[in-house]
Fold this protein.
Amino acid sequence: MTETLIQTAETAAEMKPQKVSKLSLLKPKEEMTVGDYLRNYSLEILAVFFWVYTLTKVFVFDIDLWLVDSFFPDYLWILNFKLVFILALASLTWLWIGARDIVVWFLYIAFYPLVLLLIRLPYFIFKQQSWLLAFATINAVASFFTNLKYGLIFTTIFFASFAGALFLQPGYLLLVAAAILVVLLLVAYVKSFITALKPTVIFQIYSRIFKGARTLGHTSFALDAEIRDLPIEQLEPKQLEKWNTSLQSSVLFNRFCLFTATKLRDYQKSEWRMIPSIFGLLRLAAFTVVSFSGVYYALFKWEPSLFRHTEEPTFFTFLYYSFNNLVLNSTAELAPATMLSQSMYMLQASLSLLLVAIIVTLYISHRTQKSSSELDEVITTVETEARNMEGFIESEYKIPNIETAIERLKEVQSGLVQLIYWFSKAIK
């Protein structure tokens, strides 16, 4: 009887799964099935759709109402049951993925912008193994956050004015909305010139970081007073451990400074420096087209006789008209008919010439040269910090040179010695 029970228990143990299945998002590629890929792609599509829909509906216009009204006007009543459809979709998704994954899906969708910025983007850069791309991305992200307050205020005013131009009823408020759009556009052009002439903030941040790092990290780099003047052979085990740890931190800082200076010099010689300027130029051009389309549309709603048109224009007609004005091209569908609309046309044409004739030369060429000189200053600062640290190591640890310090760390099998060797190899 006992043997039968033992055999039954062994058989049951063999039938149990050897490992617990993981969430599909956490599985390595070799373990993923077709169903896992389908779930992950579905999650990605759902996250993108959720944020595009939400941002468009909150900051631009009621997109679902516009879509149904434009293509299926007889089914506008369906929007009254929008909440029911959303709950049904959520329920079906829950049934499909199971209760275990629903929390992960909810958090992934809710924090999808952070996932892109903090996980997807760094992983993509890491896969490219390009420090030039890394520096260009860091510069772009840092510039965004340094102008975050201005950008938030500017964007809020722009969306409010643009929404007014699209949805306000005919009246003088339409002229106010159009005037604000014109003022914002002029502010954007003025700020572009000021930004091109001012020192680049991100390069100043690099210098401050490396200048302050050695001061703030002095306790990690310096030896305690009680062991500073003792020969290394007389140190007790705990004192020797502290001596090795401090030396490791000092050498690592020296290697990292030289590594950063080397990569910044590579970045200085590359064409990646022009990317922020090019994107800034394209962003300003797109902003010009969109802003003037709102201005023209508001003027037309306020007084239709301001424009000659072959057929009843829509907002897209004014967007098309604004784009053609930017490239100094006329359109048959729409044309200014009075002094006010003609003045707006002349203003956009002037800004177009300014965009092409001045910004291309000043904002890109001058900024590229300026970036070069500023990068020289940053590289010099970082290399100076590296040399200062090397001198500090020689005097503090009584070591003749940095190579001897690295060999010392190798002998004691320091935990970060491989990273130090990797930095040293990249420097050469």
